[in-house]
């Protein structure tokens, strides 16, 4: 069994020190050699060695040493070694150290006394401690506070032993006297902790007697006072009124730790709006005053809990919470925005959006390297605000459209998705959004953003001027045609003739060629002699973004361009009375589409056009050549109707999620009805009156029984032993992220006392047992709750197995009961979550989930399998 110790040092057991060498060093007169030898002995003991032959040597040569370091190591050694035999009795040789401990407790040096008293706090053997009690009590009145505070802890430890009340009958009275005269803050805290642990009534009496002086006490003592208040109010909720006054008085304490604990205690004890508002104010002050990011994250978690249970109060604190955006940490900003978005109301929406707009403008400075990610979070937050409250969309949409050309692609995608949703849900903004989009379209550099923006142009350009401007913008961004050219031995020729000649020679003689990047392309034999290789025409400086993206081989974007031009031409037929203008626009659109097909089928790009994009562009060409009413209706109406339906389904899904989160609970039929108006209000403060009202409301709505899902807990209990076994055991498995907690109930079904009962567990797979349960003694037909913690280090399925070992007085051999295996499946610690499409694709690209298989190896393997099946 692993034993607890205050010293944990890694030691390489591959090269252990020889016991004889340690013994020789301890027998010498060199204190430095003794120190090194003691360290080696302690590290060997911590790593499982026993070294019984060293004890007498240490008693003879180390005990008399006056060196402080040697004495400290000696106490650590005595703490680690086994002090009892197999029957649980103290070994006789342990008596040898009692006189040394008594001398140390009376030593003139304060350090020796203090560390010895601290060592006594870790002893559990009453036979060793009993002769030392008079010396311990003398140290309670020592002049040095270091000795007094450790003496108080030693008294508390002795009193908590099974025989402690017989060893120190009047310990609480002595400590209460010490507490009334003590001036040292740490010693005073230890004395109050002793009363709190061992004599709670005396601690409560002392607290209520000095209630006016509590704000003047030290930080350590105030923390113990708060812990006492929590414990008392949990057992007797009727007395919390007189303690809440103490908590509120401590909210102005100079210590931030005390203030934080006060706020948490106040929330746990009271539901009155005054108390909750005071706690929320305290959390907001800590959020702004503390510089540690971990503290800010913890405070934000507490505010998030308040938001769930007291949303009405937190709504008034929304601007205070928003101040946390001044932190440069992205996790803090993300958590702050998540809290704020759930506290938005029609009263505060304008202030919130104004603050978010200011933060978006700040991200343009470029001083911080993660401004792009922060801007993306702000855009998503503004998007959510605009969806909930459409009236604020007009104040933010034009500002956000300046970021369509953002270098952070994810941020630009969020902006264009936001614009697409706003232009549909806010028809009044359509004209201004289309005008702004056409003006800023040339700034867009991401293909996905261009695709979404082109869809918006194709669907929402309705008037004649908008359609014409849309076609002109696309033509300008595509630049001059064609997209590539071929030169005949240095002489310039007409572009159309060059394309025809290249196509003709390609048909006559083709052969595969390996390009510079290792890909295959079809090359004409005649072109080697008559023509130089075709080259891309990058266009002039005025050429826009669409051309540069197309020349990189993005033909999906080319298909989107073709569909957008088709929609614009079809709509132009409806709004343009002049047939000549319609025919001109149609011919220009056809020329652009044919040029994109020629570019995709040429050898100028490393990869040809994909089949889906090719079919889509060809469909657009056929549609412009021969248009029917049904096809026109599909292209101009059905696409937009599908998008409207998608938005409606999204809104419905979000509404259902909100309803699912809202837990509906009811009061039980036999619950007590407490009539607030018939109660006596004599001596009750306003805070207590508010608290009574809130408690009644909670009982009426069933909030007090919301967490009592005992039925679900019963369904997750695993039986570990049989009903006929002498020891029955069952476990409740709790899986939280990467921690597994086994709450094992062990029942002694025999008429005998089971001694040294131990739950021995082992794991298979990537599971690690954190701590091993200790030995217990079970009375006849009694039970014991044993907890075991297990860490999960991967997503593989693991198995927990083990047995229960115990001894009885009649049988000298140890009895073993084998337990059923507990299978931990990956689905037990993986919970479903929701993320946006952009976030999912980003994570997918980052982690590279696809299994990349070498095609040549796969072909060779298939050929080998085929030959084996055919017997060749």
Sequence-ordered SSE layout with sheet pairings:
Elements: H1 19-27, H2 31-46, H3 54-61, H4 68-80, H5 95-105, H6 110-120, H7 126-129, H8 133-138, H9 145-159, H10 164-167, H11 171-181, H12 185-198, H13 200-209, H14 219-235, H15 240-250, H16 256-269, H17 273-289, H18 293-309, H19 311-315, H20 318-322, H21 330-341, H22 349-362, H23 371-388, H24 393-400, H25 409-425, H26 430-440, H27 447-460, H28 464-478, E1 484-485, H29 495-508, E2 510-514, E3 520-524, H30 525-530, E4 535-536, H31 545-550, H32 555-575, H33 579-601, H34 611-625, H35 629-661, H36 686-701, H37 710-715, E5 717-719, E6 727-736, E7 739-748, E8 754-764, E9 767-769, E10 776-778, E11 783-792, E12 798-807, E13 815-818, E14 822-824, H38 837-847, H39 855-870
Antiparallel strand pairs: 1-4, 2-3, 5-6, 6-7, 7-11, 8-10, 8-12, 9-11, 12-13, 12-14
Please tell me about this protein's structure.
The chain has 39 helices and 14 strands. The strands form four sheets. The chain has a five-stranded antiparallel beta sheet.
Strand content: 5-15%
Total helix count?
39
Strand count, sense and closure of the main sheet?
Answer: 5 strands, antiparallel
Question: What topology, given as strand order, has the largest sheet?
Answer: 5-6-7-11-9
**What is the alpha-carbon Rg in Å?**
40 Å
Shape: elongated
